Structure to design on (274 residues):
């Protein structure tokens, strides 16, 4: 049946509840599909047990019905994906989803609790880690603003190469320039990086790994014809922007000259200058 649904969407009767069905009838429908009401009880974090239900969903433009376990938690309704169902009727699909949920264990479908202990060596370190952002940092914003003032436009937080899961902070696709703004601590700045006195082995390995990754990224992009510019967070943003602009404009001019030479080479040799 699942193979057939790849060609044609299921009918409403495979997942939608009957029109005008009452709350008690819905409860009976769930009890029957679960093999009894006791199978529907789910323990929650507060220590209480609540009644869970299976919700069937047919996403827009989809030809497959998906089943989710739902339960109340405080004032919110939680849900977790269970499986894809493939029967012809709602009754059969509810039963199929309940069998899968019970075989997995209802409690295992809940969101796992966050650990109460952090691997961070101190509350201060944990605070720094939480505040660390992957994009839109203050040095990035300062450089973007300075480059923008110079009249240059760019992409932000993009992959220069398709298939290479490395994002540059500023990308100039035409001249093929990728700009990275590197934090002094995270990328091991030779001028400002100081090894951590706590958990030194972990942090040294972390920073060394970042340095190797940066070097590999530069090598891969350069081999693909990109110009890589790295800007340290301690650099003056106006000076760094000038370095970026110089490279971008020089490469654009080089591309224009190459295009002109190509067009000249295509001209016929017997053109009459008059």
């Amino acid at each position: 049946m699942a193979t057939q649904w790849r060609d044609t969407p299921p009918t409403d009767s495979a997942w939608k509840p009957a029109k005008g069905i009452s709350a008690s009838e819905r409860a009976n429908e769930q009890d029957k599909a679960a093999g009894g009401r006791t199978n529907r009880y789910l323990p929650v974090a507060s220590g209480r047990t609540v009644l869970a239900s299976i919700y069937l969903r047919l996403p827009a433009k989809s030809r497959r019905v998906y089943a989710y376990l739902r339960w109340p938690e405080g004032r919110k309704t939680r849900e977790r994906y269970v499986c894809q169902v493939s029967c012809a009727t709602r009754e059969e699909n509810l039963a199929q989803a309940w069998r899968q949920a019970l075989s997995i264990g209802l409690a295992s479908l809940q969101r796992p609790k966050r650990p109460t202990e952090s691997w961070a060596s101190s509350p201060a370190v944990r605070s720094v880690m939480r505040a660390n952002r992957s994009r839109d940092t203050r040095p990035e914003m300062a450089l973007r603003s300075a480059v923008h003032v110079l009249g240059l436009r760019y992409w932000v937080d993009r992959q220069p190469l398709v298939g290479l899961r490395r994002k540059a902070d500023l990308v100039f696709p035409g001249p093929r320039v990728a700009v990275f703004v590197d934090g002094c601590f995270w990328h091991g700045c030779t001028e400002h990086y100081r090894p951590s006195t706590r958990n030194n082995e972990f942090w040294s390995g972390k920073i060394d790994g970042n340095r190797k990754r940066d070097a590999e990224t530069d090598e891969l992009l350069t081999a693909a014809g990109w110009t890589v510019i790295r800007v340290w967070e301690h650099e003056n943003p106006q000076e760094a922007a000038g370095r970026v602009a110089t490279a971008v404009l020089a490469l654009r001019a080089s591309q224009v000259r190459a295009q002109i030479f190509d067009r000249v080479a295509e001209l016929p040799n017997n053109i009459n200058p008059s």
